[in-house]
Design goal:
Elements lengths: L6 H9 L7 H23 L2 H30 L3 H32 L5 H25 L4
Length: about 150
């Protein structure tokens, strides 16, 4: 499981000439990084609800990194409608979760005005928006041409 790897191990696995992990897992973890930064900013904003939501988003996005790798591996082993649907559904969920993180981070950012962690909330917004955009593109690439 990817979530059990050290950062250096994950990066090495990502750079290997293997089909997975690849961009989907990297995108999910980018969203998880955004969520963790949102959690940090929410703690400074003393927004307990945002802390809980950000922490849950982090956990789910890390799970989605593993699910993306598993889905793509299954698709390569057996290219059928079911496995193809999964390589579309997982990045779509990554995008949806990243959208939630961006919105949450925007809300936290407003609460921080001139705080020293305002930049962390802004970074979270940018990372989450990028993760969402990339995940949507990956999902679109996995839809069969008609």
């Amino acid at each position: 499981m990817l979530n059990e790897l050290r950062v250096a191990e994950f990066l090495a696995a990502l750079g290997e000439r293997t089909p997975a992990p690849a961009s989907g897992a990297a995108t999910a973890l980018t969203g998880a990084l955004a969520a963790a930064l949102t959690e940090l900013a929410a703690r400074f904003a003393e927004d307990d609800q945002a802390v809980v939501r950000a922490k849950a988003a982090t956990m789910r996005l890390v799970e989605l990194a593993d699910e993306d790798s598993e889905a793509y591996t299954a698709f390569l082993a057996n290219r059928n409608d079911e496995t193809r649907a999964r390589i579309v559904a997982v990045p779509e969920e990554i995008a949806a979760r990243a959208d939630e993180v961006a919105e949450l981070a925007r809300g936290v950012r407003v609460q921080l005005s001139s705080s020293s962690v305002a930049g962390d909330a802004e970074a979270a917004i940018e990372l989450a928006e990028t993760a969402s955009r990339v995940a949507r593109r990956l999902a679109a690439l996995n839809v069969p041409a008609r």
